[in-house]
Specification:
The chain has 535 residues and is an alpha/beta fold. The protein has 16 helices and 17 strands. The radius of gyration is 26 Å and the shape is elongated.
Length: 535
């Protein structure tokens, strides 16, 4: 019965939409459309947040097309009656005009009736198999991703000054978000114990003993300044903020006990344009942390220029032309902290911690379209992202993954604007969120669920003519590949000649309102979304 009425996934049997592929189904279309409309009205009108549920995402397009069909059909009948009257009165010209209008509406009605209204036309519903994890969860609490949201952290009105300006990010709220996230991620009772737990877990799982950080061990912090190309940049484009960087440095040099001289903050890309850490970040933080090292692609005043190490990363596919050089400081680092931003991407759908390493390799523009654009690909395609995530010199030495979602955006370029207020999930407010995890696949799966549930088919779209809508289609392929660590064509991923095992756990939540994963539901060994309390 289900297959008679619904379009189903051939692998899972899940309902993906209503069938409209036979004459019988086209005849039943008005009844199914009316039922869909009634269902939407009953469920969504009393509680609008239900509009993001998968069942409603399947019903809403059908209900909308039914309304269009009903109006077109009603218009056809109405204008035919008028035409008939004028023909009877022998007013042929007017009668012919109304007949043409009626015929046009008839054609519209038939087109609507024949169109395939399938749930998988909506990229938000391509993320099938909710609560069916793939891969092996990582971390002290395997698969744990912390999420904290504090609307007081983002007081910017969207108009006055820059989003990153003093007063537009509440640093006391941000400090609290950092502290509580770290403690929740590790189960520790204070920040110092949390960092000690992170270092011990990393060293223990990497064969370096059950110990913490040691003097002289370098920590590289990869930030995202993708839209900054000169030191005096003061535009409003979305990039790493001074406030967020300050809180991480205060954590490391305070509770974590790391010496300033053993920290390097960097974004080294020299791709299409050479990136620069702007003075608005560097100058105040250099004053507060005078021994912390800074490195950008330009070697701006006070900032190091990368000393590139040849063949510091190799790729599983022999066809890859992405940069194989990494900064010497990154190669020499004992630990890495990956700080990404919560945003879509006009080519990749999303850009999070994995793609953040395009700021670690030299000349990332090579093969950029081939390995970044997934919308024309298919599940199982090789992804160079996995090699970045698993390379011993990058993902393989990562202590902590952080996604800054204070001003989460639909796309990767430009400034936060009204479209970036989260209407579906947060009632028109800024996203005001922070995510942390030890599992690189889990944190990106969670962030993708947030972004795709909010922006849906618009995710990644910037309006640029060169990058049409649809970038989010198949954009989670690299996460599946990372969870499996095996590619159909090349076999096991082996960056730098090291065979990878599962890099983490991939899963999608049950729905955008409950936000439950398999560990939350006690149904599997996948992701645990730990919602951090503000109290």
């Amino acid at each position: 019965m289900k297959k008679l009425i619904f379009k189903t996934c051939p692998k899972t049997g899940r309902i993906r939409g209503f069938r409209t592929d036979t004459v019988l189904h086209k005849m039943l279309y008005p009844l199914i459309g009316l039922a869909a409309l009634i269902w939407v009205l009953i469920r969504v009108v009393p509680k609008p947040s239900r509009a993001s549920y998968p069942c409603q995402q399947a019903a809403i397009p059908l209900a909308g097309s039914f309304i269009a069909w009903f109006l077109a059909t009603s218009g056809f009948v109405f204008f035919i009656k008028i035409a008939k009257k004028y023909f009877a009165d022998k007013r042929v010209l007017l009668a012919s005009g109304f007949t043409l209008v009626a015929l046009a509406l008839f054609v519209v009605a038939q087109l609507v009736n024949q169109q395939s209204v399938l749930a998988n036309d909506n990229p938000a519903l391509l993320l099938d198999n909710p609560n069916k994890p793939i891969g092996v969860a990582k971390g002290i609490f395997p698969g744990r991703v912390t999420w904290i949201r504090d609307n007081t952290a983002t007081p910017w009105d969207g108009k006055t000054g820059n989003w990153w300006a003093e007063g537009n990010i509440n640093e006391s709220a941000l400090a609290r978000m950092y502290s509580r996230s770290l403690q929740s991620l590790t189960g520790a009772s204070n920040d110092a114990k949390a960092w000690r737990a992170l270092f011990k877990h990393y060293n223990r799982t990497h064969g370096r003993g059950n110990r913490g950080w040691r003097q002289g061990e370098l920590i590289a912090i990869k930030i995202n300044i993708n839209n900054t190309y000169k030191p005096d940049d003061t535009d409003n484009d979305i990039d790493q903020s001074t406030q967020s960087t300050r809180q991480l440095l205060r954590q490391l040099t305070g509770p974590a006990g790391v010496a300033q001289k053993d920290i390097v903050v960097y974004d080294a890309s020299v791709g299409w344009k050479v990136r620069a850490i702007p003075d608005r970040i560097y100058k105040p933080l250099h004053e507060e942390f005078p021994e912390v090292r800074w490195m950008d692609g330009q070697g701006s005043p006070g900032r190091e220029k990368p000393e590139w190490v040849a063949n510091a990363i190799s790729y599983t596919s022999p066809e890859v032309e992405l940069g194989s050089e990494l900064p010497k400081a990154v190669v020499e680092a004992s630990y890495l902290i990956n700080v990404a931003l919560l945003k879509g991407h006009e080519m990749a759908g999303v850009t999070l911690c994995a793609k953040n390493h395009f700021g670690s390799i030299r000349f990332p523009q090579k093969d950029h379209r081939k390995y970044v654009t997934q919308m024309n690909g298919k599940r199982g395609d090789y992804s160079a992202f996995v090699d970045l995530m698993g390379s011993p010199n990058l993902g393989g030495k990562t202590l902590l993954y952080i996604v800054d979602g204070l001003y989460g955006m639909q796309t990767n370029v430009g400034a936060p604007q009204e479209r970036d207020r989260w209407q579906r999930l947060f009632h028109g407010q800024w996203s005001a969120s922070y995510f942390m995890s030890q599992d690189p696949v889990a944190i990106e799966s969670v962030c993708l669920d947030f972004l795709l549930s909010e922006f849906q088919g618009e995710l990644g779209y910037s309006g640029a003519k060169a990058f049409p809508k649809g970038a989010s289609r198949n954009c989670d392929n690299y996460l599946i590949q990372a969870a499996l660590a095996v590619n159909d064509k090349y076999g096991r991923y082996h960056p730098n000649g090291v065979n990878l095992t599962s890099l983490g756990v991939y899963e999608h939540w049950n729905n955008p309102e409950d936000k439950k994963y398999s560990r939350n539901l006690n149904t599997g060994k996948g992701i645990e979304l730990f919602c951090v309390s503000l109290n």
